[in-house]
TrEMBL record:
This is Corrinoid adenosyltransferase. One of its GO terms (biological process) is porphyrin-containing compound biosynthetic process. It comes from Pseudohongiella spirulinae. Pathway: Cofactor biosynthesis; adenosylcobalamin biosynthesis; adenosylcobalamin from cob(II)yrinate a,c-diamide: step 2/7. Residues 1-20 are annotated as: Disordered. One of its GO terms (molecular function) is ATP binding.
């Protein structure tokens, strides 16, 4: 049977191998560029992850722009925290949930007016990080022209990071992105009849 000393020696050897592998990968990652990140899937955690990156960026003194394409029913904590922050420019689409307005023409007009803010941020090289929250729905519903969106993303300043959230990210968006995470819905409290919780859900 393995003695504790042998177990420790085996662990040490495994950790040394792991460290060598990780160090090698870190040394090989030499490119520095603005990233396009897509957070998609049906599970909870897309917007909250995106705002987590925004918090990190603000912490480092970076200048950030946020455009929220669907305005929720509740005043979100992220808006309360960042809207008045000197490093953040925050724009919210001035309609409610799309299934509440039920008016395609006014939704398109609102999507286009909101997209104009995104386009401006994506052309501004003084903005380090742009968060386009719930943008994917504007493409799924056909409210925005996908070529116009892709072209603004492709032509943005090379050092600018962009984070896009929303379900059903399109194939072309996924192809263009550097980092894509699909969050699975394993379980959600709402489906067990639990109402939305301040701080956790909004
Ligand atoms: P979060 O903002 O909490 O990170 P999200 O951005 O991944 O969520 P959205 O589809 O934008 O998800 O939904 C926002 C709201 O819907 C949040 O209150 C969230 O808790 C809730 N929600 C997210 N995913 C689910 C789900 N699978 N079932 C039920 N409610 C969900
Ligand atoms: Mg969201």
């Amino acid at each position: 049977m393995e003695t504790p000393e042998q177990r420790n020696a085996r662990h040490k050897k495994a950790m040394q191998r792991k460290k060598a592998h990780i160090d090698q990968r870190i040394a090989a990652a030499t490119t520095d560029k603005g990233l396009l990140l897509v957070l998609t899937g049906n599970g909870k955690g897309k917007s909250s992850s995106a705002f987590g990156m925004l918090a990190r960026s603000v912490g480092h003194g970076l200048r950030c722009g946020v455009v929220q394409f669907i305005k929720g029913q509740w005043e979100c904590g992220e808006h309360l925290l960042f809207a008045e922050h000197p490093q953040v420019e925050f724009q919210v689409m001035n309609t409610g949930f799309t299934w509440e307005t039920q008016d395609r023409d006014s939704d398109i007009a609102a999507a286009e007016a909101t997209w104009a803010h995104a386009e401006r941020l994506l052309a501004d090289n003084s903005i380090d990080v742009v968060l386009l929250d719930e943008l994917t729905y504007m493409l799924t519903y056909g409210y925005l022209n996908p070529d116009r969106v892709l072209s603004a993303l492709q032509n943005r300043p090379t050092s600018q990071h962009v984070i896009i959230t929303g379900r059903n990210a399109s194939k072309s968006l996924i192809e263009l992105a550097d980092t894509v995470s699909e969050i699975n819905d394993v379980k959600h409290a709402f489906n067990a009849g639990i109402k939305v919780q301040k701080g956790i859900d909004y």
